Amino acid sequence: MRGPIIRTVVTGLVVGAGITALLSLGTQATAAPADFETVPFEVSGELPIYPKALWKNGSTGTNVRKVEARLVQLGLLEKRYQDNEFGTMTRSAVKKFQKSKDIPRLGYVDQNTWDELVAVTREPTQTELYPPPPMVNGKRLDARCATGVVLCIDKTSRKLRYVVDGVVKMQLDVRFGAEKTATREGSFSVGWKSRDHVSKLYDSPMPYAMFFSGGQAVHYSSDFAARGYNGGSHGCVNVRDLGKIKILFDQIDVGDKVIVYRS
C-alpha cells in the first residue's frame, strides 16, 4: 500500500505547464519569470506545504521572549504576556503583525516573519527583556513577579501582592496550609474561579476562590478573619480581608500568574 504523496506546488511550474499547452496549440506566449517561490496553499486531498516554523505555539526560551519584546514595542502584545512562552496571546499578536505586513497569517514565526519583525523594531534592551523585580519597602519580590498580572505570594512575610507589570497594586495578609497539608510553592496560573465556592471535601465555604494548583486556591477565610494565624488551611492561601479580595477577584483573569515562594 502506497503512503501519502506530498507534492510541492510552485507557481512557476503552473505557469510553465500553461505555456507548454499554449505552444502545443501554436499560440505564442512569453516565457515564465525565472524567480518564483513556493507558497502556502490548501488543496483538497493534499497536505498543505508551509514554511518552517522558527517559534510556534508551545515554544519556550529566550528567543521567544525576544519575539514577544518586539511585539510589545509595536503595541501588538501586552507586556504582561512577555513570559518566554509562545502561547495564545503571542500567537494572536504574531497573526496581527503578519496581517499588517500582508504576509500569510500563519500564527507562528517563520524566517520571513522574523525578518519583517526585525526590520521594523529595534533590539530589545536587557531591561526590556528582563524588567527588574518590583520592590516593596526596599525589598525585592520574586523575579517572576516582574512582568504581567501576578498573584505574588510570599510565604515568609505572609503577604499576597497583586502586581501588574512590576507595580504592586494591592497587598493582603494571608496564611497557608499546615505542615501535613502545605501550600505548594512554585509557578502556577489561575485555572478557574468560583465566587461562591463551597469545598466538597471539607464542606466549608471558600468565597472568591481562585484555583491555581489542583484543589488549592486563593480565597477568603472567615476563620482567618476570626482567629488570625492561630489557625491554618488545608493547603489553600487564606485571605482575611473580605473587602480587598472582593476587588481582587474581579481584577484577576483565568490564566494570570500565581507565584508562591519564600523570600
TrEMBL record:
Q: Where is the L,D-TPase catalytic domain?
A: 149-261
Taxonomically, the superkingdom here is Bacteria
Pathway(s) served = Cell wall biogenesis; peptidoglycan biosynthesis
What protein is this chain from? Answer: Murein L,D-transpeptidase
Keyword vocabulary terms for this entry: Cell shape, Cell wall biogenesis/degradation, Peptidoglycan synthesis, Signal, Transferase
Q: Which PROSITE patterns does this chain map to?
A: LD_TPASE
**Record's keyword annotation contains Transferase:** yes
Q: Pfam family of this protein, just one?
A: PG_binding_1
